[in-house]
Amino acid sequence: MAIPKVMGTEIEYGITVKGDSDFDPISGCVLLVNAYREDHAGEILWDYDQENPLADARGFQVDGEKYTPNQQENIARNKTLMNGARYYVDHAHPEYSCPEVTNVRDLVVHEKAGERILEMSRREANALLPGGTQMLIYKNNSDRKGNSYGSHENYLMDRRTSFKQIVENLMPFFVTRQVFCGAGKVGAENRSQPVDFQISQRADFFETEVALDTMVKRPIINTRDEPHADREKYRRLHVIVGDANLSEYTIYLRNGVTALVLSMIEDGAINKNMSLRDPVRSIKEVSHDPTCRKKIQLEDGKNITAAELQAEYLEMALTYAASTSVDPVTEDVLAKWEHVVGCLQRDPMELDGKIDWVMKKSMIESFMQRKSLDWQSPRVEMLDLQYHDLRPEKGLYYLLERQGRAERIVADEEIATAIHTPPADTRAYFRGECLRRYGDAVFGVNWDSISFGVDGEPIKRILMAEPLKGTKSHVEELLTSSPTAADLVKNLSA
Amino acid sequence: MHTTTKRRLDNHADAHLVPLYCAAGSTQKQQPRKGGGNDAEGSDGGGAQKLAKKGKELKEDMDSLVDEIDEVLEENAEEFVKNYVQRGGE
């Protein structure tokens, strides 16, 4: 029986400072993350103690050095926010991990809230930079010079579903889903075949099918096994194959359809074998063909387009939804997916206004036509990059949105609320509320625990191994009856 | 609605930046302005004229988009793109 798809995304952003040739990205990131102030703003550690990034879902532990910053570095690089999110420096990128949510609509709200928070911090950080320089942030995945950074998705799964089953049924889906969630890119990278425009920002960077590493020889399916939850019951599927999306409609489908497919895998509802002969080759073949006509080869020798493959998954999903009860959001996702797959099989450009890569391509082509430019022109490359600029007055996605050329899923008021308010229906509620109410007494935080330092007592760590516990309905009374952290700890120990 | 919604951007002290992202007056789901219309024409004489008018509207629509983009597009594109270098991430 499929378990609720608690989910979240972690987005690495691009960062640069215009007018500063000596710009150091790490100190830029530290400045940026610390420029975002919330009222409690205590000195809170990210609790790395229980993290285990070297555990592989295929059942072994990789030998290696786990990096853990010292306390001072830790505090400088990690902020846990009142909305339950984690905002931090990951290598040389600012990263925002949204709080856990139960449904994809909330996911859109919270991922968008992350964009606002990044932009707010950027403005604050700029005030501290020398005149003539300006910090800029981009929600994208590469610098077109062969360096890539990720937008990762996380989905809660039932541990009883074998990883082998997940890989088999997910691989064809992951290779082809870019047709409805790619962010588009001008040119090719990482020694791939040259191309004017391709569907995915990340496709060129995938070099293996299944592996643990996320930074070199990237795998289509990542085997990281760090549930941040009860590891007897749960798996956290860590997905690195996606692009950074701006379009709400695209984000909605990306996570919504993927969550649905994962539920189907858990319930054994993927009953067609769509295995590909060469997934690593095919993910690039699909990306390099914006007409969506290219056929890729299945293991059984058949040739099929990415849209046709998606149509097979869609058909299984429609059967699945008819036989089980799906919630209204999932129904809506299914309806939109169906619409999109239909358009892709006729003419992908019908999806202008809905899917990032189509919107970007359409915008660039209009510009090229009017200005008599070609795909190699620097202004075209600039359009590609500026689509992802987080400044509302400069970012080209935001321009399209303001002009009514981008279909929305959520409202700006919801996004504004999510900047400071955690989701009410996951443990993010408890985390965010503890930070808001007892910020000064919080010693350390992780996804599945929070620690308090109270009046010279030993640090008390509260475990939160269940993503669906610690919700508003579970803990509101407890919080209300605990004016201080000491009260909270006492009440919990009672 | 055909006119370009040009939004004046105020530098609010409001940290939420809500006004900066909203299209004028509306926070509801907005339907995209699609280029392709589905005008099925009835009579002939009116048909050709309507089609020409539609074509003109589309061109104006595209022109206005390009103009808006041109206004905000980073100058010195070549240098900017060249200087945008990132470290590898995950």
Please explain how this structure is put together:
The complex is a heterodimer of chains A (494) and B (90). Chain A has 494 residues and is an alpha+beta fold. Chain A folds into two domains: 7-38 and 81-417, 2-Layer Sandwich (Creatine Kinase, Chain A, domain 2); 418-493, no CATH class. Chain A is 39% helix and 17% strand. Chain A has 16 helices and 20 strands. A six-stranded antiparallel beta sheet of chain A has the order 6-7-8-1-10-15. In chain A, strands 3-18-19-20 form a four-stranded mixed beta sheet. The longest helix of chain A is centred in the N-terminal third of the chain and has 24 residues, at 104-127. Chain A starts with 6 loop residues before the first strand and ends with a helix. The model of chain A has no long low-confidence stretch (mean pLDDT 95). With 90 residues, chain B is mostly helical. Chain B has a domain at 44-72. Chain B is built from three helices and no strands. Chain B has helices at 18-21, 44-72, 77-83. The longest helix of chain B has 29 residues, at 44-72. Residues 1-18 and 23-42 of chain B have low confidence and may be disordered.
How are the SSEs ordered, and which strands pair?
The complex is a heterodimer of chains A (494) and B (90).
Chain A: E1 7-12, E2 14-18, H1 25-35, E3 45-46, E4 55-56, E5 60-61, H2 71-77, E6 78-80, E7 86-90, E8 93-97, H3 104-127, E9 134-138, E10 151-158, H4 163-176, H5 178-181, E11 185-186, E12 197-198, E13 206-211, E14 218-222, E15 234-239, H6 248-266, H7 279-287, E16 295-297, E17 303-305, H8 306-323, H9 328-346, H10 356-371, H11 378-386, H12 396-402, H13 412-418, H14 428-438, E18 442-446, E19 449-452, E20 460-463, H15 472-480, H16 485-493
Parallel strand pairs in A: 3-18, 13-14
Antiparallel strand pairs in A: 1-8, 1-10, 2-9, 4-5, 6-7, 7-8, 10-15, 11-12, 16-17, 18-19, 19-20
Chain B: H1 18-21, H2 44-72, H3 77-83
